[in-house]
Design brief:
By secondary structure, the chain is of the alpha/beta class. The chain contains 20 helices and 20 strands. The longest helix is centred in the first third of the chain and has 16 residues, at 75-90.
């Protein structure tokens, strides 16, 4: 068989049934091999490589299986790099296959030539190139193992065009079985000793590598101990937000009570998180490298433990294994301390009224009541996402697909990926007007494949996040942040979506009810007063 045929057989052996991509001449042999397996694997062709890579990242985040993406060389690969970077920062399993120039053309600056090891090396777990068709099974197996084991992440595999047409007798690789580390019993016992002595502990959860076992173990641990639980940025769906333990997310625009819980904690139980910029407010809430708070840090990857903060107890383990082992050794009850914090979280769900006629907090209040219990919410990046991030509560099977990397344009491709996983499941995408136009062409992909979500488009005519920063640092001197927008409702209709503009909060409930009943997708444009730039923040004040 050809190298292209062998590659597809290897992917089928790994259980791949969906891939995202934009076709290119550099991997025609792969496209030809896909023709023969259309009943086993579908290629969802997006309108831009960034959309393909974003969709693959979201697919990996939702399924815990590597999202597969195919793009061509040069511009195709560099366009797709945004999804690779997102997968890295979000700890998402993903494999990007890149068509490459012929092996005999290397180092001559051939048409669209890029050194992919050098280009993707800093933003991927592994970047490699297949020089010999016989090695395709080896490389594919390693790529799947690398993407899914330890801290999940993206792998980039370059495929020289002439290699894909070489003939090979190699057999496809067998299914890869990811491995997950179990905790050291002595370390678990030490962690329990530290935590049992705590008076003001805080549990912070997040990162990649969580499965239903991990979520269940977290719920059991929280219920037994009554420990306050915060999530890192855009990981709220790990725990029931309506339950007594959740106190909010430690992300951008961190609520004061969470900041206080971090600084006042005598013990921080950090489970599978990176101590990144958002959770530490730029590494200012905890002293580097030795915090005043005692830190118990469990992570699936040894590389993340002690990376910035040196823990008092270090445990390399999958989340479910560590939490389950620790749960049996905890005797303390932190309910008295939790009862001091929980009301502060509840108060954040009742913000000041909006200045304009559309109040996004009230819109989110309504969504909290009417969203399906297994709804999937997606978003890109911008101040608009603070509303849904703060006021939508996750419980049951609700899931959040949002880029921790802060990548604009990620929400629409994530929504189509969610629909690709389960077309019958309710998918709601939050988008800002600037964010939406980073990937609005993917409405065409949604139309073509029948993967239409409900899109809530917040239109304030601004690149709002940057405008807010401008007003804080250079008051009264806006520059480059105003947007002149098209008629979004007409644009949506051109792609076959039902659409409606909402000018008042009172109009939203009926509009959303109609949106849930349409089978062809819906776009609701919400006209937001530019002054309502973020919860409890008025831009012109």
């Amino acid at each position: 068989m050809t190298g292209g045929e062998l590659l597809i057989k290897c992917l089928l052996e790994q259980g791949v049934d969906t891939a995202f991509g934009v076709p290119g001449e550099s991997y025609l042999a792969v496209l030809d091999a896909l023709y023969d397996v259309q009943n086993q694997m579908r290629l969802i062709t997006t309108r831009h490589e960034s959309g393909a890579s974003f969709a693959a990242e979201a697919y990996g985040k939702l399924t815990n299986k590597p999202g597969i993406c195919f793009v061509t060389r040069g511009p195709g690969a560099t366009n797709a790099s945004i999804g690779v970077h997102t997968a890295m920062q979000d700890s998402t399993p993903m494999i990007l296959f890149v068509g490459q120039i012929g092996r005999d053309m290397r180092d001559r600056e051939a048409f669209q030539e890029v050194d992919y090891r050098a280009f993707f090396g800093p933003i991927a777990k592994w970047a490699t190139e297949v020089d010999n068709a016989d090695r395709i099974p080896e490389i594919v197996a390693r790529a799947f193992q690398m993407a899914t084991s330890g801290r999940p992440g993206p792998v980039v595999v370059a495929l020289p065009e002439d290699m894909l047409t070489d003939m090979t007798d190699a057999a496809p690789c067998k299914p890869v079985k990811p491995f997950h580390p179990a905790p050291d019993p002595a370390a678990v016992a030490e962690a329990a000793k530290v935590l049992n002595a705590a008076k003001t502990p805080l549990m912070i959860v997040g990162g990649g590598g969580w499965d239903q076992q991990g979520r269940d173990a977290l719920a059991d641990f929280a219920k037994k101990t009554s420990i306050p639980v915060a999530s890192v940025f855009r990981s709220q769906d790990l725990i029931d937000n309506r339950g007594p333990n959740f106190i909010g997310d430690a992300g951008f625009g961190m609520a004061p009570h969470i900041r206080e819980a971090i600084t006042n904690a005598d013990v921080i139980l950090a489970v599978n998180i990176r101590f990144g910029e958002t959770v530490t407010d730029g590494w200012t809430l905890l002293d580097v490298p030795n915090a005043k708070q005692k830190i118990i840090h469990s992570h699936i990857s040894a590389d993340e433990i002690g990376k910035i903060y040196q823990p008092d107890v270090a445990i390399q383990s999958a989340p479910h294994a560590f939490i389950t082992a620790l749960n049996s050794k905890i005797t303390a009850d932190y309910s008295a301390y939790l009862n001091q914090i929980q009301p502060k979280y509840q108060s954040t769900l009742a913000p000041k009224p909006a200045k304009g006629p559309v109040d996004m907090a009230k819109v989110c209040d309504h969504l909290r009541d009417v969203l399906d219990d297994d709804a999937i919410l997606t978003n890109g990046a911008g101040n608009f996402a603070i509303w849904s991030g703060r006021y939508i509560q996750y419980h049951g099977e609700k899931r959040l697909l949002g880029p921790q990397s802060g990548a604009m344009g990620a929400g629409l491709p994530a929504a189509l990926a969610a629909k690709a996983v389960d077309p019958k499941r309710q998918v709601v995408c939050f988008a800002g007007d600037g964010d939406f136009q980073m990937s609005s062409q993917e409405l065409g992909t949604m139309l073509q494949y029948g993967l239409q979500p409900i899109i809530l488009l917040l239109n304030n005519g601004l690149y709002g996040t940057i405008r807010l920063h401008q007003e804080r640092r250079y008051e009264g001197r806006p520059s480059g942040t105003e947007i002149v927008n098209p008629d979004f409702t007409q644009l949506a209709k051109a792609y076959g979506f039902w659409s409606q503009r909402v000018n008042k909060t009172e109009e939203f409930a009926d509009a959303f009810a109609t949106a849930t009943k349409t089978s062809k997708g819906a776009l609701i444009e919400l006209i937001i007063d530019p002054d309502d730039i973020a919860p409890n923040v008025i831009l012109s004040s």
